[in-house]
Request: fold
Amino acid sequence: MVASVRRLVLVTLVIALAACGAAPPRPAHVVIGEARAHDERGQFDAGRAALERALRDRRGPVERAALAAELARLAASDAFARNAGYEAALALAEAARDGAAEARAIRAMAVATDAVGMVEYARVLWSGRTDFRVARDAFAAALVLYNEAGDLAGAAEAHFHAGLTFEQMGHHPLAAERYTAALALAERVQDRGVIAYAERHLAGIADERGDLAAARRGFERSLELREAMGAARLVPYALIALADLDLEEGAVAAALARYRRALALAEQLGQKPGLVWAHVGLAGGLEKAGAPAEALAHYEQALALAEAAQVAIGIVAAATAAAKLAAPERAQVLLDAAARAAPKP
Reply:
């Protein structure tokens, strides 16, 4: 009797599921959370696939706008990591922003507008230029939208991104104000990603003013958070920042260990800009360690990677440093390469 009842229930469930058709789509916020985790780990293809699958489902306009904006955000991160694909990422972000405006999805408009800013920021940063006004204006617009949507985490990220533009333009007090605002909001909502970013850049400003103890605290907290989050894409840069500080304080062996770890992780991720700076940092450490030939080899590797990825600031840094160690004829070639890559006024 019990078995018959169970069979009847099972048959009823099967019929009900067939009548309902396919399972309902997964909530957009769940898919977006997974995409952000893929972004942090540098798994851009996996994040893109998850968002594109979700966009193929039947959804309301606000959910679709949120997913499209997140796809644009991921494309901006990917473009930054590769120093490539800017036009496609920008087109995606602008389309997502316009679609969100049509759907009156304020938060999605903010995410897409911020993505426009990130594309413009990355393109200018890696070129070695210093005019970040277009990116800065986009971040300001995103902040207004995040505030309108009541999204504290988004506002924290927009403050942080605005701080990047001020820092790169040499306005460190303004950058510190934005990073501090980002940190306060991120602490309120426990957004570990933005906390790690803000700590890292506030530490860099502390280093610039000679407060090495504050710099070390910030760099270490940033690294700890990124490792705890599994944010592999961001760990090489955190390691390089600490290694630079180690070198500044004369801890050469510690610096070399961190540079080598950053280099291995950047190689694993295929992260060309990260590889450039890991090689440059390691070369500088090897110079301090009294190994000029090995240092020169790493500067040359950094230069080749920077040229392949068209990272102008990397070309200038690697070629200029290598020229000091190279034979005279090669040194002139390197200095010419640095001159060609340097941004023109």
Remarks:
- The mean pLDDT is 92.
- The two ends are 88 Å apart (CA to CA).
